[in-house]
Specification:
The structure is a single chain. By secondary structure, the protein is mainly α. The chain has one domain. It is about 80% helix and about 0% strand. The two termini are about 25 Å apart.
Length: about 325
């Protein structure tokens, strides 16, 4: 594996650094677009664009991997009958309900706060894994959970006392996060059996189709020709580049640099979102939001980097790819 030093490593680090700001900007672009569109219309539009690009890139990546390994190419495998209910739950939780509730929550709060809630994912996932006895937690992992917990309570408290009263939006974002974490744990056995890329592709196709059907009444009521430049930019560039191309870049970097280096960039997205919101739309974060963001980001780094490194844990390629793709679905 590449150590991260040299031309190959520098190339991946440069792309990840660049996309950290694009992923952060995606939250702010969404906040702007919601001034002209209903939350579900925007979400499903960006999801459709991003999902199509991601599926196309995954198709060629899967084809290239099969050709390089000299194995038969199969993008969509046959799913055994006993696994179909689990796949349906994964699809509904991860590709229908999570993005739907997430964008509804964003409509009731701010982009920078939404990015902070997304950064809470590693702590929630670790707690689920510990409860289900599917993940080990070391002392630094427990420190990370405590830090993330402090940040969570701080952000929730700020949501209650804030002038805009963000409690409802925060609650929806947290539920969306929990659904994403549940999906990640449900999809792991399927990924080990059928392959992570194939499972993510199927989940996107099934859940995305259902999402479009649910959103169709809202979509036909939108005044598409009246949308401004930044709304269209949020749909097309935010979907194709941020959601589609961005997740493919994460997976490529993961294979070259390893998960420890890649996840750090994902954890920096809330910081990027706050800075961009500050300079672009004059959205000044409160002291509570800054403190909560620092606690949650530090907690994620302790859980995903320090604890894993300290215990010398080696994760499977399927777990790494699933965590990488899932961590950026709402970006």
């Amino acid at each position: 594996m590449d150590t991260g030093i040299g031309k190959a490593g520098a190339h991946h680090h440069s792309l990840l650094f660049l996309f950290t700001f694009f992923w952060g900007a995606n939250f702010i672009l969404a906040e702007i677009a919601l001034n002209e569109m209903s939350p579900i219309s925007f979400s499903v539009s960006r999801f459709a664009v991003g999902g199509a690009v991601m599926l196309l890139l995954m198709y060629f990546q899967c084809y290239y991997d099969a050709k390089r390994a000299g194995e038969p190419f199969q993008f969509i495998p046959h799913i055994e009958k006993g696994d179909r209910i689990r796949l349906l739950l994964v699809s509904v939780f991860g590709a229908t309900l999570a993005p739907w509730l997430g964008i509804e929550g964003l409509g009731l709060t701010t982009g920078s706060r939404a990015s902070i809630w997304l950064a809470l994912g590693p702590a929630v996932s670790t707690l689920f894994g510990f409860w289900l006895a599917t993940e080990k937690v070391g002392k630094y992992g427990y420190i990370g959970i405590v830090l993330a917990g402090i940040g969570t309570f701080t952000l929730a408290f700020d949501g209650v006392i804030a002038t805009g009263n963000y409690l409802a939006g925060d609650a929806l974002l947290f539920i969306a996060l929990v659904l994403t974490v549940i999906e990640l744990h449900l999809i792991k056995p399927l990924a080990k059996k059928y392959g992570s890329i194939s499972m993510v592709a199927l989940r996107t196709l099934i859940g995305g189709t259902l999402y479009i059907l649910i959103a169709s009444p809202s979509l036909v009521q939108e005044s598409w020709l009246t949308f401004g430049f930044w709304t269209w930019f949020a749909i097309l560039a935010g979907g194709a580049i941020g959601v589609g191309l961005g997740q493919w870049i994460k997976v490529r970097a993961l294979r070259k640099l390893g998960p420890t280096r890649v996840v750090i960039y994902g954890n920096l997205v809330p910081v990027a979102a706050m800075v961009i919101a500050w300079f672009s739309i004059g959205e000044n974060p409160s002291y509570y939001e800054i403190f909560a963001g620092l606690m949650i980001v530090m907690g994620a780094i302790f859980i995903q980097v320090v604890d894993v490194y300290n215990r010398g844990e080696k994760r499977s390629p399927e777990d790494d790819e699933l965590s990488t793709i899932s961590s950026g679905k709402q970006e």
